[in-house]
Write a structure and sequence with these properties.
The protein is mostly helical. The chain is built from six helices and no strands. The chain is 69% helix and 0% strand.
């Protein structure tokens, strides 16, 4: 393939940022793979799968509660757990499997 000099400079700059040990062909292959992965549509999760994931996350949170968190009042613990399970608003806004707010 033929590349514009400006594009080759950008690829070489990216290679250096990765530690500089990649051959140019390998760097191009990785960049193409990353672009294709980013362009792939998100797989939609079934309601059953989402419920199972939430259940597993809740169980893990319960298992990880330490002495500091268990010292908090029960209502505060529940609030923290809901916040963890729901996730940050920044992530909820970009999720493809959730309906967009109107």
């Amino acid at each position: 393939m033929r590349w514009q000099p400006r594009t080759l400079k950008a690829i070489d700059r990216w290679r250096r940022d990765q530690g500089g040990h990649l051959a140019r062909a390998e760097a191009i292959r990785r960049l193409v793979e990353m672009a294709l992965a980013a362009a792939a549509p998100a797989k939609l999760t079934s309601r059953q799968g989402a419920a199972k994931a939430t259940e597993l996350a809740a169980t893990t949170i319960d298992n990880l509660i330490d002495e500091v968190a268990s010292a908090a009042p029960s209502e505060e613990q529940k609030k923290r757990k809901r916040r963890l399970l729901k996730g940050p608003s920044e992530f909820r806004e970009i999720r493809a499997d959730l309906p967009k707010p109107k």
